Amino acid sequence: MARIETPKRVRGTQDIFGDEQRRFAQVLATFEHVHGLYAFQRLDLPVFEDTQVFARSIGETTDVVSKEMYTFPDRGGDLLTLRPEFTAGIARAYLTEGWQQYAPLKLVTSGAVFRYERPQKGRYRQFHQIDAEILGAPEPAADVELLVMADQLLRKLGISEGVTLQLNTLGDAATRDAWRDALVAHFEAHRDQLSEDSLVRLEKNPLRILDSKDPRDRPIADAAPDIDAYLTPEARAFFEAVTAGLDAAGVAWTRNARLVRGLDYYRHTAFEFVTDRLGSQGTVLAGGRYDGLIESLGGPATAGVGWAAGVERLAMLLDEPEKPVIDAVVVPMGAAAELRATGLVAELRRMDIATDMAFRGNMKRRMAKANDQGASYALILGDDELANGQVQVKALTTGEQAKVPLDTVAQSLSDLLFEDEIAEDHGERLPPLAQRLTTA
Ligand code: ATP
Ligand code: MG
Fold first, then answer.
1. What is the pTM (predicted TM-score) of this model?
2. What is the DSSP string of 357-371?
3. Which of 22, 147, 211, 398 has the fewest beta carbons closer than 10 A?
4. Does residue 115 have a known ligand-binding role?
5. How do residues 201-237 score in pLDDT, each as one tens digit?
6. Where's the Aminoacyl-transfer RNA synthetases class-II family profile domain (predicted)?
7. 312 ligand 1 Cβ < 6 A
8. How crowded is residue 342: how many other Cβ atoms within 10 Å of its Cβ?
9. Does residue 308's CB lie within 6 angstroms of at least one atom of ligand 1?
């Protein structure tokens, strides 16, 4: 018979397991915790949308839309795209569901996003983002709140060291038009030195030349005029309100006058949290204000501001994750004990005690597995114990053992675990196990 080739993982996708998975889960759990402190509501969205949703809101001239989208006709002939980000879908949902009535609306979501890119460390074709948006709030206080939340998330993850918040303003419509004209004049004067990509950008999206990574573009981009000379008093006041809010909240930032978001509907605030620890994949969290986006989808003028962060990139920055632990392992010896142990395990789990019991193996192997799993206690049940209606409780951290009645062991263990937790919180020493179990 011909040998069947085993299937491979699709290029740029990941099977996330073990320590990597624990880091990943820690990012998501920390995000849940932090956004709860800021009273955001979670939203869950479709993984795919009509291609137009992304094409119109992200913009045809961006890399994401022109090169990176997973787009396909479904069996009915509709053109669909796997989401390459969340903001477009959130704006679409806001319109479809008529959420204007709830504005201002503070929303978060997370999950898989898809981009056809060249895979490398920190860059995948299916990756994951956490995302936070405030819709219907034109006030700079919304920008501040999102930035303070992002900063708190990074601190809570323990990775704020070496991460810088880079901040810029793109001004209001009048500012931006004036600045754009000045940039076009500057780049036109240096046409012959620009890369091919930037010549295309000059036609379609000249602001993007500012963040070009091509070394040929850098000197010209670096010498380009800053936005500052073109800021209207209103735009200047908005930026000052954002920076004053950050200062008041104790969030450090630096100005990066070269930081842009390419599309016409971006206004005012643009920002990135950048680390020096991930090489060219150094942007861990990025966002800005997009007051014109909902209009570009055919909706009423609606303010919006938000950010997205790559879960994998945040996870890569985390220290060694804590090993998982469980409360107890039940170790039966013999067929009769095995069956009684099945009942005991069920009872413990129903009492919210994290318990495991190996499906097979001798005493030695089962005890070794209990240690690997980081169990606090082993409950050993042999024929002798069974005959006497008893079970051996072994504290795996100290090696102490004591026998207790089988009928009440679940409650005894529950009490032990509770005392252990209190003692740990207060740094207290506990009496010997035998004493604790008899006085319990
Ligand atoms: P980059 O410049 O690294 O391509 P981007 O500007 O395309 O990033 P955004 O669209 O702002 O990124 O997405 C927000 C965040 O999502 C990024 O800051 C990064 O952490 C993460 N991210 C973006 N693309 C990928 C990818 N292909 N794989 C893993 N994470 C990614
Ligand atoms: Mg990209």
1. 0.92
2. --SS--HHHHHHHHH
3. 398
4. yes
5. 899 888 889 988 899 999 999 999 999 999 999 999 9
6. 31-332
7. yes
8. 13
9. yes
